[in-house]
Design a protein that fits this description.
This protein is an alpha/beta fold. The protein contains five helices and twelve strands. Strands 4, 6, 7, 8, 9, 10 and 11 form a seven-stranded mixed β-sheet that branches. β10 and β11 form a beta hairpin.
Length: 195
């Protein structure tokens, strides 16, 4: 045990040095969080003004409204680009209610098609929020992860798929989600147009 400045026979000051050698690199690695990770496919987007329905995202996170928050952010960001004629979110929610769907996790592919047809959409954006909250470690950091797919209703082809996550620094979860959505939509619109 501990006796005469020794712990189990080792000098105490040597243990502090060893602890510093082991702990400092660990703190450096943990303290340098990544800002974002993304994977996706390049889309070939249809030309002209097409009608896009953004459905509520399936919520796989612990935050009870993350799917709705993500969908609202997407509607705002996509609409601001002026590229697609975005179906108002209230119209999408009304079509969901008429199909007896209360939450996005109750939606299946057939139901998504039915809702897209009800709002006369050429394209539909679907996906999920897999993380929306704070990571706990040395400090609380907001963390958001979203998965999206853009599907052409005429043939069911997935034109674009993207998954991304972001850890914010010094901002709220909401601001981190906004930044992530903006980054993902930038990626979508950097895709080339169909001939």
């Amino acid at each position: 045990m501990y006796r005469n400045n020794r712990w189990f026979g080792y000098p105490i000051h040597g243990l502090y040095r060893l602890g510093g050698i082991l702990v400092i690199p660990l703190l450096i690695v943990c303290g340098c969080g990544i800002s974002h990770i993304q994977t996706g496919t390049n889309a070939v987007l249809p030309t002209g003004k097409v009608r896009l329905a953004i459905l509520p995202l399936e919520n796989l996170s612990n935050h009870h409204n993350a799917g709705l928050i993500g969908a609202e952010l997407l509607v705002t960001e996509v609409r601001s680009r002026g590229r697609f004629n975005v179906v108002p979110f209230a119209e999408v929610r009304e079509a969901m209610e008429q199909s007896d769907i209360l939450r996005a996790d109750q939606m299946k592919n057939i139901t998504a098609n039915k809702i897209a047809q009800a709002v006369d959409a050429d394209l539909v954006m679907i996906g999920s929020v897999s993380e929306y909250g704070y990571q706990f470690g040395l400090r609380e950091q907001p963390s958001v992860s979203i998965n999206l797919r853009l599907v052409q209703m005429a043939n069911g082809d997935v034109l674009w798929a993207h998954s991304a996550g972001m850890i914010g620094r010094g901002v709220s979860v909401s601001m981190t989600a906004q930044s992530l959505v903006k980054m993902m939509i930038n990626e979508l619109f950097s895709s080339k147009e169909a001939d």
